[in-house]
Amino acid sequence: xxxxxxxGSFDPVHNGHVRLAENILSAVTDIEKxxxxxxxxxxxxQDGAHASGADRLEMCRLxxxxxxxxxxxxxxxxxxxxSYTVDTVTHYRSLDPEGRLYLIMGGDxxxxxxxxxxxxxxxxxxxxxxxxxxxxxxxxxxALSAELGxxxxxxxxxxxxxxxxxxxxxxxxLNNEDISCYLPQKVVKYITDHDLYRFPKE
Length: 202
Prior knowledge:
Elements: E1 3-8, H1 15-27, E2 33-38, H2 53-64, E3 70-72, H3 85-95, E4 101-106, H4 107-112, H5 119-125, E5 127-132, H6 135-148, E6 154-158, H7 166-174, H8 185-193
Parallel strand pairs: 1-2, 1-4, 2-3, 4-5, 5-6
Helix pairs in contact: 2-8, 3-5
């Protein structure tokens, strides 16, 4: 089975994440399963997440429930310590050695990819799909892909830009501002019902 892994802190998951997944599934038509993977602790976010793993997992389930091939996984959340992408990719490659394996990331992640732990091994095991917002960014990422892709394949796709980040959404919640246009309504309700992001992280 051809599988795509879409990882992130999803803290909280928002419409931009869902839109990106939909764009990629439309462009890469051989993807049969999309694995949504909330991270335990990202190596690039050592301060950790603001919402619990269980809350982020459930918000992802609510956000992606209308995408039939999407499967939300707690694989990284069940571990301990830092979540290294190479370990996740190795796990999914072992589950299906014959199927195609994709790894979805944004342009900022691709720019730092050369610094990732065992990035060459990741490229040997899967094809990276990188999302760009503009034609200029596509050209930039294509050039970077040619430089990084000596060990494997990197695809650059154009995705519609999303005007706000998870960090900005958390600030809006903290300031009692409306967030309903930025998140799926079921996620907004979950955040309200569970009183998430209402207090500064200690």
